[in-house]
Amino acid sequence: MTQPYVLILYYSQHGSTQSMAQEIALGVEGVEGIEARLRTVPSVSPATEATEDAIPESGDLYCDLDDLRNCSGLIIGSPTRFGNMAAPLKYFIDTTSNLWLTGSLIDKPASAFTSTASLHGGQETTLISMLLPLLHHGMLYVGIPYTESALNQTLAGGTPYGASHFASPKSTEQGLSELEIRICRTQGQRVARLAKQLHLSASSLA
Questions:
Q1: Average pLDDT in the 197-202 region?
Q2: How many other C-beta atoms are found inside a 10 Å radius of the C-beta of residue 190?
Q3: Which site from 9, 52, 54, 127 is most exposed, i.e. has the minimal number of CB atoms within 10 Å?
């Protein structure tokens, strides 16, 4: 039997969202019997004839629809763009109509994470914007409960809707805060546990 995996799908321009994705992956990998699969998406351009190479020069591979179709859970991440997810991630999600038509993602757990350059830069609206297509796909949205005490302690990122990061000029030098890392890993662990349970349940019924 193929080992189930949680797909961590993100877009990162300056590296903060990628750092979050890596911490979330560590949370996923902390759950026995399930893997983390990191994937990204290419940039988009207003010049529609511009294209990216099929394989990025560095970093994680670009996501394809099979990565999404076969996942047992999904965690998507994006920096904030005017209170919304970034265009490259939205562009990729807009290509998933076939998965919607076939119900490929129904009843799979999903969550979201984001990074902003200012403390009140739209973290929660961005997370909610990423929630909407997941619900249209019939996924089960997984937030972060306040049993994770870092939510009450953080002076930077962290919301019950999903992990977040305050990428101020100072934090860019220092990276994610200790509490932001805790929240990222908790998010990965929670989605992984649910994905594993649901995968095993579906396998037993097959």
A1: 86
A2: 23
A3: 54
Give the E-state strand segments of 41-185 in sequence order: 73-81, 84-85, 109-116, 140-141, 164-166
- Strands 84-85 and 73-81 turn out to be antiparallel
Residue range 39-56: average pLDDT? Answer: 75
Q: How far apart are CA 198 and CA 108, in angstroms?
A: 8
Pairwise CA distance, residues 83 & 100, whole Å: 25
Helix (H) or strand (E) holding 65: helix 65-69
Q: Which of 205, 181, 195 lies closest to 34, judged by CA?
A: 195
Model-level pTM greater than 0.70? yes
Hey, what are 125's tokens? 């609206």
Q: Compute CA distances 111 → 1, 71, 164, 189, 204, whole Å.
A: 25, 13, 12, 11, 25
- Closest to 38 (Cα-Cα) out of 1, 70, 10, 79: 10
Neighbours of 114 (CB within 10 A): 32
Using alpha carbons, select from 145, 23, 148 the residue that is nearest to residue 75: 23
CB 91 within 8 A of CB 41: yes
The pLDDT of residue 51: 62
Cβ(75)–Cβ(105) under 8 Å? no
